[in-house]
Amino acid sequence: MNSSFSQNKLKGKLEYKVTYKLSFQLDSTDANSRKAELMILYLGEDFSKYLSRAKTLANPIVVQGNSAHTSRNALPHFHYEIIKEREKDSLLYLLKIPKMEDRFVYAESKHQFDWQIAQETKTIEGFSAQKATTTFAGREYTAWFTTEIPISDGPYKFNGLPGLILEITDTQGYWDFKFVGLEKLSPKITYRLNLKQYEKTTRPALEKLWHRYRSDPMGYANNPNVVGTPEVDQFYRDAFAEMLRKENNPLELK
Questions:
Q1: 43 near 15, Cβ under 8 Å?
Q2: Could you tell me which of 137, 135, 139, 107 has the C-alpha nearest to residue 203?
Q3: Closest by CA position to 217, among listed 197, 203, 236
Q4: What is the maximal distance between C-alpha atoms in the chain?
Q5: Residue 73 and residue 88: Cα distance in Å, rounded?
């Protein structure tokens, strides 16, 4: 996917805002660990942008040089953003390390899904939706899409159906995206992305780095102004290790 980096800047208008409620269970051994977060899919003529709603609350999405940051009051669990280009086989996964200036991006093909479309239909929030199934990253999924919104997109990396995905759930129910609403933006929102600010990487490398950050955020920052005792440092490392131990059920298993 080197072609995805052939241009260093991306600019366009975002016309629609789709809101999903993502319900997820990060600890497969504890049903009480289930959480929920609102996620936003912005749709434009040339590309879409997917991210946690919490990342959009404090600042306008109009980005000058992609300098937006997460509000102190907004605490998203998901810090990444996903860009899908409409006319290209291009999916960009962007991650800024919280409270740091480190930015990373990797590119993938959009065409990762072998959809099987069924005849079954149902109504979702007034839209006629049709059933489809696929496998992705070690999980089996059931999706519901509508041709009444003829945009081949959906939450997270999901796309490739002849309409917008309104719902998609893995067969075990650990990851469940449900359509909340669709809003036409007036005026349209301008979005600018400067990829020169991002270090190019791969998914495995970024997952390893993210795990290192999550295991020891203070050690990752290596801030000489933050000095703690060995006992305090060990306490925090143990606490983060326990937190990560419970996060054993990522969306992408492989």
A1: yes
A2: 107
A3: 236
A4: 63
A5: 36
The secondary structure element, H or E, covering residue 182 is strand 175-194
Helices (H) and strands (E) in the chain, counts: 3, 12
Q: Residue 188: helix, strand or coil by DSSP?
A: strand
Residue at token pair 């290596």? 222
| Residues in CB range of 27: below 8 A, 6 or more apart | 33, 246, 247, 248, 249
Q: Stretch 224-250: mean pLDDT, rounded?
A: 66
| DSSP 8-state class, residue 179 | E
Q: 65 falls in which pLDDT band (50, 70, 90)?
A: very low
Instruction: Compute the distance between CA of residue 99 and CA of residue 81 in angstroms, rounded to an integer.
Output: 16
Structure tokens given for 29: 């051994």
Which of 152-166 are b and which e, b meaning 16 or more Cβ less than 10 Å from the residue's Cβ? bbbbbbbbbbebbbb
Instruction: Dump pLDDT digits (tens) for 6-54.
Output: 578 899 999 999 999 999 999 999 998 899 999 999 999 999 999 999 9
Within a 10 A sphere around the Cβ of 23, how many other Cβ atoms?
A: 16
> What's the token pair of residue 140?
């089996």
Counting other chains too, the contacts that 66-71 makes at CB distance below 8 Å and 24 or more residues apart are: 66/192, 66/193, 66/194, 66/197, 69/96, 70/98
Question: Cis before residue 98, ω within 30 degrees of 0?
Answer: no
